[in-house]
Amino acid sequence: MDDLPEEVQELIEELDKAAEDEEEDKIKELTQKLLATGIDVGAITLKKLSLLVMDGEEEMTRGWTEVAIQIGMDPFKTLIEGLAAGMSLIGKKYENGEAFVPQLLIASTAMYGGMDLLAPYMKQSENITSKPATVVIGTVEGDVHDIGKNLVKTLLSANGFNCVDLGNDVPASKFVEAAKEYRATAVSMSTLMTTTMAEMPRVVKMLIDEGIRDNVMVMVGGAPITTGYAAQIGADASPRDAASAASWLKEAIFDFPSENVRWG
Amino acid sequence: MVSEMTSKERVLAMLNRKPVDRVPVITGSAMVKEYIEKSESSWPYYHCNAEMMVNTVSLMHTDAGLDNIVMPFGMFIESMALGLEVKMGRIDIQPSVRSFFNKPEEVNYDNFLKDKFVKTTLDAIKLAKEKYPDAAVTAFLVAPITLTGDLMGAENLSMLSIKCLQKEKQMQKMQDWLSKALEINRIYAEACVEAGADILYYSDASASPNLVMPEFYYQVAVPAEKEIGDFVHHLGCPWELHICGDTVPIIEGMASTGADCLSVEQAVNMKEATKIAGDVPVVGNVTPLLMVEGTEEQIVAETMKGLDDGAKASMLGCGTPPLSTSGRLRTWVKAVADWSSENF
């Protein structure tokens, strides 16, 4: 943004401050001033949103989401090219070992803060062209750690997946019931503890027993889970972190039969 | 050649950085289903019945051959005693904390030592000391950062851990929570030592680089762990520090806390960790799941590799899985004895 005219840069700085201080009227006033400069406010807003989410700036993300709403930007565009793009940026950094879990968490909070503001507008939008693939996600029974699971959910959502979050301490049967109910494309299980890893093969076995194992892809993850373990229990993948999970599923879905073929 | 030691002498010598007759084999948690059944304990009563607790955990020493006897069974006692919601799990699943406080002022520990689960732990320590004076009786306690996470919620801890590095106000908030945790740590530590614990084993799972940044660990966690560690030393008791995940980026900090040994898990490169830790003993780092489904070859190979790489005691990563089998536990202990006879 350094190449923008000085007047525009000053307005952006003022907007940052108004956003941080949550001054709604000031945000509206400055948005109008920014539009009056003739600059492409939409492009600036998307860029700002992605960087603010990446940095986990919750208040400023909300403020700039207000800007997006003020200028009438398509809420899906704001979500995908602004908020979710920022989540992907920090996800990539995490994948490369350049960021840590707390950074992912505050980025996630920032993204959801912006999404909350967009929600009422998204309901009115008709920009839904395709039904997103559904992922049933949860932490296995006996394990209440759900930070990792929540991050997977966030990054899957940021990549356009519809996540059915079963929460933590989820009995094996719940995964299977939800997969059927939502005609899921994937089941994603996580655990942080070695003591509860044995729940994962129970879910896989139940999927087989119910005759729906081939209807879904099974992802397993968490600190103690290795690719060897995933293969051993019959899971399809064990991405090493939340960002890899989203990347893997985005690729894998292309070669996977459609929902109607799988679920009839 | 060091003459034959009791289990307790062996573990204490290792912690004191003295010669041992063979490498000690120790554990952090010891809720093993097979031993619960063998000792005729019943769920969930073994969590609040000292005799059942000791009958079960002592089998790790008398049957499997480990050098320590560890109680209680999980990291929930402190939270339970503070009134937080705890789900008791199953015979093969450890209890887990399900709720947290909204602000530090809500944390009330006036009756902490009167809680029945705390009292069970203290009674179990006394009983284990009486019945097994040759074993290293070890209290399994929640360390300050993890307890702070239990008080305020682990996700809130993780987020505050980054915000507090950026803003003084957030740091004050962090310290307000942490000071509550440390006060509870002190009360419980003193009671455990009074009850006769030979060693306090602190697990600071939430201080892991998996959850907080190393920068936070060095700035906030190290002083807190050192504070409780110094207090424990002042009581005349050694303490062990366990942190989950790949702790290589924070091993130097862990070593600076004054802990008598550092417990690491299988994600850690033992050779690298021992090099960084210098003269502070590093213990670990056998994959716990091997005790559930490992072959004899796998158990022996991984145990020996840890020792070859410099571990001063063999320990299962983050504790003993409930579905561990006694046969595998014995295989592990034998592997350590075999390594010792070849190398001592």
Strand content of chain A: 5-15%
CATH class membership of chain B: Alpha Beta
Question: Main sheet of chain A: which strands, in order across?
Answer: 2-1-3-4
Kindly report the average pLDDT value of chain A: 90
What's the CATH topology name of chain B? TIM Barrel
N to C succession of SSEs of chain B:
HEHHHEHEEHEHHHEHEHEHEHHEH
Count of discrete structural domains of chain B: 1
Tally of discrete structural domains of chain A: 2
Shape of chain A: elongated
First and last CA, distance of chain A: 50 Å
Based on CA atoms alone, the radius of gyration of chain B comes out at 19 Å
Attribute tags:
heterodimer; A: 264 residues; alpha/beta; Methyltransferase, Methionine Synthase (B12-binding Domains), Chain A, domain 1; Rossmann fold; 2 domains; four-stranded parallel β-sheet; 12 helices; 4 strands; 59% helix; B: 344 residues; TIM Barrel; eight-stranded parallel β-sheet; two-stranded antiparallel ribbon; 15 helices
Notes on the protein architecture:
The complex is a heterodimer of chains A (about 260) and B (about 350). With about 260 residues, chain A is an alpha/beta fold. Chain A has helices at about 5-20, 25-35, 40-55, 60-70, 75-95, 100-125, 145-160, 170-180, 200-210, 225-235, 240-250, 260-264, and strands spanning about 135-140, 160-165, 185-190, 215-220. Chain A has twelve helices and four strands. In chain A, helix 5 crosses helix 7, helix 7 packs across helix 11 and helix 8 (about 170-180) packs across helix 9 (about 200-210). Chain A starts with 5 loop residues before the first helix and ends with a helix. Chain B is of the alpha/beta class. Chain B contains 15 helices and ten strands. Chain B starts with 6 loop residues before the first helix and ends with a helix. The model of chain B has no long low-confidence stretch (mean pLDDT about 95). The interface of A and B includes residues 146 and 224 of A.
